[in-house]
Amino acid sequence: xxxxxxxxxxxxxxxxxxxxxxxxxxxxxxxxxxxxxxxxxxxxxxxxxxxxxxxxxxxxxxxxxxxxxxxxxxxxxxxxxxxxxxxxxxxxxxxxxxxxxxxxxxxxxxxxxxxxxxxxxxxxxxxxxxxxxxxxxxxxxxxxxxxxxxxxxxxxxxxxxxxxxxxxxxxxxxxxxxxxxxxxxxxxxxxxxxxxxxxxxxxxxxxxxxxxxxxxxxxxxxxxxxxxxxxxxxxxxxxxxxxxxxxxxxxxxxxxxxxxxxxxxxxxxxxxxxxxxxxx
Length: 280
Ligand code: PAF
Hints:
Blueprint: E1 4-6, H1 9-21, E2 26-31, H2 37-49, E3 52-57, H3 77-87, E4 91-93, H4 97-100, H5 120-123, H6 127-142, E5 146-150, H7 154-166, E6 172-176, H8 196-202, H9 204-217, H10 222-235, E7 239-247, E8 261-269, E9 272-279
Parallel strand pairs: 1-4, 2-3, 2-5, 3-4, 5-6
Antiparallel strand pairs: 7-8, 8-9
Bound molecules: pantoate.
């Protein structure tokens, strides 16, 4: 079967309506393209949950601030489509911006809870409004039963999960573990911006996080472990936005000794901002 590519909502709905008429379950993998093995893992996980997978490719302008990298964000549609075909995606939805945001578009989703945890939202205040708006649209456009999101963008995963629950969207958000290089560096489309030396250096992010998680598990106070991780990363040449231990679901500050925690980090190497997280 050749992979179908659709660029407007009518064509998308025609395809997904056929699946529903046949009683087939579907999963959506929302992406901004520039696909790597992490995205392909999302497709493969989607195929485990559903009979059909639709992957969306849309570089969402609403989640970039004016000073961010919208213009230089990697766009690699031909190779993305080849990888998706190989991975077994059934349909690609790659709309142009005016299909997603037609003239007169004014609506957005107002978020709180994990979207206001003082993590990504503190450094990219517009980001989750843009993500939630496009994801809510992609969920209703595709009418998928499952949505596959990587744990790499952990705050995004919690925000989208909460939003789907709060808005009673008939879709199950599935979190998929981060795919890493052998060094531990999480795969990310933004790794393409790293120089060879920075790429090598970047592995320290995961190593520092796992070390801090180990210390917390061994009884060290999360605030002490994260402060040490911040110092270590700074010494290694990172400019740290945050290293934080948070409740694994709400992303609130930890209150209870036994609550499940997640350690999250965002740090710059040169001109590249990297994020990562691990379970404690
Ligand atoms: O994680 C991403 O690539 C994007 O934030 C998403 C979920 C595709 C929304 O634009």
